[in-house]
């Protein structure tokens, strides 16, 4: 699914407005708050769902070539994190949904049991 379409359908707020998300694709989603878990298990093209908002989320997203990072529960990143994500070309979003609901919505939108 295209990232822009997913953003519109789930109501995500794009923080990194300078990152062009047109044509970017989301293959699947990965929910975790442990950086080591994301580094070990998230796959290229995944959209990472988390409540972590420190600078290291940008580094992990870049390292794993993720489709972007969504901060759940209305959590806002610091200006430093938003700036670094923009600099690295990492789409950074805010969702008002808690992780459980957000994960469920994306599971349905991205194909459920037919996912990767």
Structure write-up:
The chain has helices at residues 3-10, 35-41, 56-63, 79-88, 99-109, and strands spanning 13-14, 28-31, 46-50, 68-71, 92-94. The model has no long low-confidence stretch (mean pLDDT 96). It has a five-stranded mixed β-sheet with strand order 1-5-4-3-2, with helices on both faces. It contains five helices and five strands, in the order αββαβαβαβα. By secondary structure, it is an alpha/beta fold. The chain has one domain (3-114): Udp-n-acetylmuramoylalanyl-d-glutamate--2,6- Diaminopimelate Ligase, Chain: A, domain 1 (3-Layer(aba) Sandwich), CATH 3.40.1390. Helix 3 (56-63) links the parallel strand 3 (46-50) and strand 4.
Index terms:
five-stranded mixed β-sheet; globular; 116 residues; alpha/beta; 5 helices
Structural class: alpha/beta
| Global outline | globular
Q: Tell me, rounded to a whole number, the average pLDDT.
A: 96
Major β-sheet strand ordering: 1-5-4-3-2
Which CATH class? Alpha Beta
């Amino acid at each position: 699914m295209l990232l822009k379409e997913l953003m519109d359908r789930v109501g995500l707020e794009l923080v990194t407005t300078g990152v062009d998300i047109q044509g970017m694709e989301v293959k699947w989603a990965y929910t975790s708050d442990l950086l080591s878990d994301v580094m070990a298990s998230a796959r290229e093209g995944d959209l990472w769902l988390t409540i972590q908002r420190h600078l290291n989320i940008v580094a992990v997203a870049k390292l794993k070539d993720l489709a972007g990072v969504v901060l759940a529960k209305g959590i806002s990143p610091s200006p430093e994190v938003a700036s670094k994500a923009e600099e690295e070309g990492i789409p950074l979003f805010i969702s008002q949904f808690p992780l459980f609901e957000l994960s469920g919505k994306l599971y349905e939108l991205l194909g459920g049991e037919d996912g990767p």
